[in-house]
Amino acid sequence: MAELVFFSGTMDCGKSTLALQMDHNHRARGRGGVRFSCNDRAGDSTISSRLGLRTDAVEVHPTTDFWDEVVVRRTSGLRVDYLICDEAQFYSAAQVEQLARLVDEMEVDVFAFGITSDFRTRLFPGSQRLIELADKVQVLQVEALCWCGRRATQNARTVDGIMVVEGEQVMVGDVAPTDDDREPAGVVGYETLCRRHYMRRVTAHGANLMAGSDPTLPFDVDACLWPGAGEARRG
Fold first, then answer.
1. Which of 92-101, 162-171, 224-233 has the lowest mean pLDDT?
2. What's the rounded mean pLDDT across residues 31-50?
3. Which residues contact 219 (CB under 8 A, 6 or more apart)?
4. Largest Cα–Cα distance in the chain?
5. Rounded CA gap, 71 and 69, in Å?
6. Which of 3, 22, 92, 210 has CA 20 to 30 A from 132's CA?
7. CA 145 to CA 93: how far, in whole Å?
C-alpha cells in the first residue's frame, strides 16, 4: 500500500540528505520517481544538502498541481511510483491534499521532508496539513545542536546576530556563520537553538558578546546581558 510519510525536523538535521538517499535507493530498485523542491538554498529546481550533495528537481510554485504533474507523466509513458517532496513546509494546504489524493487514488508513495515550525514557533501551513493527513510522521534522529551544545528544537531568525520574532514567515537568509562571528549590517540569518535559549532570545552572537564581559554573578543571567534582549522580549 502506498503511503504519505512526513519526515520533519529543525534545520541541520539532514532532511535533504535523507531525501536524496531515499531517491537513490528507490531508483536503484527500478522504481520511477519525481523529485520536487521549493525555495532550496541552492536555487530553483534543486535539492541540495549541506553535506555538498545536490541534484535537479522540479520547482514547486503556488500554481503547481501535483495531481496534474503525475497524470501528465504517466499519460506520456513515464513511470511514477513515488514522489520526493523536499522543503514541503512551503507547500500550500491544497497541495498537500493533492499529495494525499495521489497516495489514495493512484498508489503513489509520497515522501515529504520539511521543517515543522517557523522562527516564531508557529506551524508552516504545509507542515500543519502534512501532520494532519500523513500516514506517518517521523522526526529525524540526527540532532541539530544549539550553540550551547544542547539539542536544538527551534529555528531562530536573526538580524545582525540578534534574534527577531516578527516579520514575514518566508524570508531568504544565510545559515552559515562568518569566520569571525560578525555579520554585515542588516543581514538576515538563521540558526537552531535549544528551547531554553530560544525563549531567552540568546543566539550564538549574543553568547559571544557575553563571553567577552566579566561575569559578576554566580548564576546564569544570559537573557539580560546582551544588546537587544530586552527589545526582543518586549516585541
1. 224-233
2. 83
3. none
4. 72
5. 6
6. 22
7. 30
Cα separations in angstroms, 73 against 32, 176, 206: 11, 38, 51
What are 62-91's pLDDT values in tens digits? 999 999 999 999 999 999 999 999 999 999
Answer yes or no: 87 catalytic: yes
The mean pLDDT of 172-197, rounded to a whole number, is 65
Q: For the whole model, what pTM was predicted? A: 0.71
3-class DSSP string for the chain: CCCEEEEEECCCCCHHHHHHHHHHHHHHCCCCEEEEECCCCCCCCEEECCCCCEEECEECCCCCCHHHHHHHHHHCCCCCCEEEECCHHHCCHHHHHHHHHHHHHHCCEEEEEEECECCCCCECHHHHHHHHHCCEEEECCCCCECCCCCECCEEEEEECCEEECCCCCCCCCECCCCCCCCCCCCCEEEEEECHHHHHCCCCHHHHHHHHCCCCCCCCCCHHHCCCCHHHHHHC
Cell numbers standing for residue 181: 562571528
Average pLDDT value for the chain: 82
204 pLDDT above the threshold of 70: yes
Residue 24: its pLDDT value, please? Answer: 94
Alpha-carbon gap, residue 109 to 102, rounded angstroms: 8
Catalytic residue among 3, 59, 69, 87: 87
Contact 71, 108 (CB under 8 A): no
